[in-house]
Every structure is written in C-alpha cells, then in structure tokens.
Amino acid sequence: MPAPLFALVLSVFSLGTAESVIAGLLPQLSTDLDVSLSQAGLLVSGYAVAIVVGGPLVTLMTSRLPRKPLLIGLLALFVAGNVLAALAPGYGVLMTARVLSALSHCTLFALALIAAAEIAGPRKSGSAVARIIIGVNLATIVGVPLGLLLAQQWGWRATFWGVTVLSLTALLACVLLVPATSAGAGGGVAAELSVLRDRRVRVALLLTVVGMGGGFTAFTFLTPLLERVSGFSGHQVTLLLFLFGLGSLAGGALGGKLADRALMGSLTALLAVLTVVLVAFAGVAPQPVAAVGALVVFSIVFFALNPGLGARILNSVSGRAPTLAVAMSIASVQTAIALGSWLGGRVLDLGHGLRSVFLAAAVLTLAGCSIAWCEWRADRRASRTPESTPLTGAATAPAAPHLRTAPGGVRRRPPENVRTQK
C-alpha cells in the first residue's frame, strides 16, 4: 500500500474505532457517570446525529480551504475531542466531546476518500475507496476489541486515551506522507450545493440509503437471530461476528475490483445477489451449519457494495466540487443504519419473528437493485448517443472536456465507466 494511502487508512481506522467502541463501554459509563443505560446510549445516537446534521454543514463552511491543511485541522479537532472525552468529569462534558469529534468525522472521511481516489487515479477509484473502507472494517475487527480490552484493564478513560494516541499518530502520518494539493476542498458553497442538482448524485445518495438500509436491517438483528433462531451461544456468536468481520474485508477488496471493471453493472448484480442471500438466510437460519455459510456470504456481498457506492459519487462529481457530495454519501450511510434499525424494530413490533426481519431487508435490497439497474440502463443508453464520449470513468478528465454540446445547444454529460459497462 502506498504510504499516503496508509496515512489515510490510519485516519479512517481512528474514526471507525472512536465511533464504534462507545457501544461496548455503555455499562461502565452508566455506572461511573451515574446515568441510566438509556442515557448512556445517547452517546451513540448523539454521535450519529452530529454526523448526519453537522457533517454537511462543516463541509460547506470549510469548502474553500485547501485540502491537506483542512485534513490536518480536522484530525487535530478529532484529537482534541478525544482528549476532552478522556478527561470528562461528567456526562455533559462527555457528550460535548462526542459531538465535537463527530463534527470532524464526516468531512474528514470525505477528504480521505477524495484524496485516495486522486492518488490512485481515475481507473482505480473503486480500489482506492475500498482501501479506505478497509480502515473502517479493521476498526470493527481490531480497534474495537483493543479499545474494550483497555477499558477492562484500566477503565473507559483509557480507551479514549488509546484513540487519542491512534489519531495523533494518524495526524503526524498525514503531515509527513499525504501530498499537498493546489485544489481547495471544494469550490465554495455555491459550487458544492450545485453538485447536488445533478440527478446522478441524488440517485446515488438514494441508492445508498435504500440498498445499504436493507443490509443494515439484517445486520442490526444478526446477533439475536444467531442466538435465538440458529441456537448459537453468546461465545459462539462472538466468534461468528469475528468471521463476519473477516468476510467484510474480503467483500471490500472484491467490491473495489468489481467497481473498477463495471461500476453500475456490479452494483446491480451485488444487490440482486444480496437479496437472494437475505431470503436464503431467513430460510436456513434454524440450521446452524447452513446459517454460518449464509453469514459468510452475507458479509462478503454486503460490504462489497461500499466501494462501488463511493466510486459512483466520486465519478458523478468528477472535475467539480466533490466534498459535500461525498460527505452527504457518508451521512446517507448513517441514515441507512437508522432506517435499518427502525424497519427491523417495526417488523418485530408487529409480531413477526426475526426471520421476517431478514425478509423485510430483502425487500429494501430488491428496491435498491431496481434503482441500480435503472441507472445502469440509463448509462448504457447515454453511451450510445452521438454526443457522448466513450470514457473509462468520469474522473478521466476535468469537468470542461466532459461536457459536449448536443444539437440545440443542450449540454450533455457522458456517464462514467461507459466502456467497461458495454
């Protein structure tokens, strides 16, 4: 892995660890801070709300700043937030620290994705996105267990000190290894907002919410299904979740390669396969061996979606101000998580079982597959028009060469990945 990409992956690894480890600390925090478990749980949802609401606002406010200084500044803010969390004397200060860290999360993640795609080049944008997302997967597999181990040995404050050291290391690595760029983080507020008028960007955001929402519906209720329907013990489920994490790594790598070859075609196929896997998982859940097989396939296919969805956003805004669109895609993932937990909870509240949750998840992924298929068809139709130029990806050239004047003065944008998807 190139050194600049390593620095970016380490940054995202820090973000993912800080975001996810808090869930395992809730019992300690509830006791030590003298709050209820439900109040402690707001530290999780508060972080997510700050990402969804505050993240795009921070992106707009910093849209004219150069990317590398902004990346370093946001990492410094993230370090400060974790220092404050480690020193927090009470619940209110800890919640403030969590929100402070979350405000840097969305734009920082977006900058890491954009920088990785620029370093890798247009024809490898999917693989570059996959490498960054691996940082998030590693946070789940490695960062969170290590953080919980620190908490077990020295208390929850040690976990935040550990994240502080990790993120400070990432900051120094970015200072030394990530190349400077003459481009700003965006083209100003107007330029950033104008990108959202692009139909392909809006559809990509919708596809993220719907397609990923189906996967997160199943993932949210995966542990109860394995315990209550498949009959695994708590210890066995822990091992299975580790296996799930390994599958997510394989899925991220696979998804990056598929996105480089045929972006919308691969997303359509992956969502179709995921729909079948979720239905099959619901069917074989009572059979432990078959359930393990379905679990592995589910993890691979689900996480293979991430690189393609990220690359679709990056390619759609090629040559224009990309940061807000990418930040919105990250917020869309958080929305998908919330949608998944809400939908699964509603299915259970209506009196249906855990297997029905997976069937409801399949309905969402099928809807996502339909959206992806329509976009794929639209790209292929546009590629056959005389005005379009057959490019490998939308990031191949700056914005101006991407625009061709059609008869009547209408300006048309060719789709990305045209040649590979024919």
Listing every helix as H and every strand as E from the N terminus to the C terminus, the arrangement reads: HHHHHHHHHHHHHHHEEH
Unreliable spans are 387-422
Q: What is the number of strand segments?
A: 2
Structural class: mainly alpha
Helix content: over 70%
What is the spatial order of strands in the main beta sheet?
A: 1-2
Q: Which range does the strand content fall in?
A: under 5%
Categorize the overall geometry.
Answer: globular
Instruction: Report the sheet with the most strands, covering strand number, pairing sense and barrel closure.
Output: 2 strands, antiparallel
CATH class of the largest domain, named Mainly Alpha
CATH topology of the largest domain: Growth Hormone, Chain: A
- End-to-end span in angstroms? 31 Å
Region (Disordered): 384-422
Main location: membrane
Domain Major facilitator superfamily (MFS) profile: 4-380
Biased composition (Low complexity): 389-407
